[in-house]
């Protein structure tokens, strides 16, 4: 092969293929990038809400859309479709992440998993107690679940600013903690923020779930049947009184996580195909002109799909859409809060705002540090390699960023518009403080790699 042609071919390959990343590195990269997009969308929504465009903004979000026909159709506002429809895909991705972490991730090893689980439990319990204490005796007590959640995308966005100063084991701790936190939030929504139950619709949900389980047991790996039954399950949830987004988590837990191929035959066959692909390549023609190479590529793709679990493949596909479209849309639809600067003092002295901010900032810090310290002291777990208690404390501050799930729960908890407005302001204020304080604390207790 001529030197110039070989050099050009190598350059094309380098441009085409990105450097391979581990699943953890890929996950962190996406979460960090989406966190920055989420920040931008939040700022845009806040700017619109406090400008002359606010009536136009509200008008769009209250536009009614119907899916279906005359005999069977579902009509909701655009904001409702985002919060109950698109967010079901967010919960589906959360469900996939929970299942992966339990099977092969940070939560797979019992001793290793105890620390983030304990931290997450403390980080949910103490904020709820603080909020309940401040709002005791008021109908605003319904918002006790609001300060319990951690927004992993925002938190990873802050970590991205610190780069290689952060040990991988600390990132793993935060990811595992946030995933347990998400699982807790899902259970809280299902158990405590459910409307009046529609029994026939719930029976329909049960039937759809049974079909999902049968599809799994039958060994079907194509996403089509799971999407079909998952959509029916979502429709049933929408009518049942249980929040529809939980259909995403239930569907995710039925997605197969096993590989159909053995690794040795897979690797041997891929080497054979790669060797043949290289041998028959004509450097004067593109791959599109080489039908034999196209057949080899198709065979390689089939073998990769055989080796890769449906859970892994679907998480990879949906994570991009959720991180860069659905969550930013949720922020645009829900973070647009008009703020009267003259009434800020009254807003921040309101029990709902106080409960949310105290829960997210103080409650998360106290709960995560206290429960983590206890399981280490008892001897049930130990600090991950390269991680210190000051780092755990700093991450506990960062866990006070409760944006996405906290705003979502506040929408379920409060029918009172004043309470909802104050809760959202409290979430935004606490998340801003937690992000800045967590960043500064992590910067002080970590050092730049030599």
Shape: globular
The oligomeric state of the chains shown is: single chain
For the biggest sheet, the summary is: 2 strands, antiparallel
Distance between the termini: 42 Å
The total of helices stands at 18
The total domain count is: 2
**Beta-strand residue percentage:** under 5%
- Rounded to an integer in angstroms, the radius of gyration calculated over CA atoms is 24 Å
**CATH topology label of the largest domain:** Na+/H+ antiporter like fold
CATH architecture of the largest domain: Up-down Bundle
Count the E strands: 2
CATH superfamily of the largest domain: Na+/H+ antiporter like domain
Q: State mean pLDDT (0 to 100 scale).
A: 83
Widest sheet: strand order?
1-2
Question: Can you describe what's shown?
Answer:
This protein starts with a helix and ends in a 5-residue tail after the last helix. Residues 6-21 have low confidence and may be disordered. Strands 1-2 form a two-stranded antiparallel ribbon. It has helices spanning 3-16, 23-49, 54-61, 78-104, 110-134, 152-162, 168-192, 199-217, 223-240, 246-252, 263-279, 291-307, 310-334, 344-348, 351-378, 389-398, 403-413, 417-445, and strands at residues 64-68, 73-77. With 450 residues, it is mainly alpha-helical. The protein is built from 18 helices and two strands. The protein is 72% helix and 2% strand. It has two domains: 38-63 and 76-194 and 243-258 and 309-445, Na+/H+ antiporter like fold, CATH 1.20.1530; 262-305, no CATH class.
